[in-house]
Amino acid sequence: MAWIYLAIAGLLEVVWSFYMKKSEGFSLLVPSIITLISMIASFALLAIAMRNLPLGTAYAVWTGIGALGALVLGIVVLGEAATFSRIMSALLILAGIAGLKLSSS
């Protein structure tokens, strides 16, 4: 169950990072509220997951999901550059996440 909580926390990290961008420096109310609510939920689920997962593994996977999700959302939704080096770097992050999951007891 801890891995499910961690995955949801990572997805919520993608949500809050996207809406933080859309809030224009917290100057728009609705995106700012979505940012804060998804941040709180993400941190809460991360904390629950850390009850059963090692700190380093949980935090690295959480930030990795957030980084990859934000990168994909930036490319697909915001039209950010999808360069070879960005994609290769993202694949390295994905490999690290998989390695941490596979090596976790």
Q: Indicate the proportion of strand residues.
A: under 5%
Described by the principal axes of the CA atoms, the overall outline is flat
Give the beta-strand count: 0
Total domain count: 1
* Share of residues in helices: over 70%
Q: Which regions have little confidence, pLDDT < 50, spanning 5+ residues?
A: none
Q: Which secondary-structure class do the elements indicate?
A: mainly alpha
Give the SSE layout:
Blueprint: H1 2-22, H2 29-49, H3 55-76, H4 84-103
Helix pairs in contact: 1-2, 1-3, 3-4
What tags apply to this protein structure?
80% helix, 105 residues, single chain, mainly alpha
What does this protein structure show overall?
The chain is mainly alpha-helical. It has one domain (2-103). Helices cover 80% and strands 0% of the residues. It has 4 helices and no strands. It has helices at 2-22, 29-49, 55-76, 84-103. Helix 1 packs antiparallel against helix 2 (29-49). The longest helix is centred in the middle third of the chain and has 22 residues, at 55-76. The radius of gyration is 14 Å and the shape is flat. The mean pLDDT is 95.
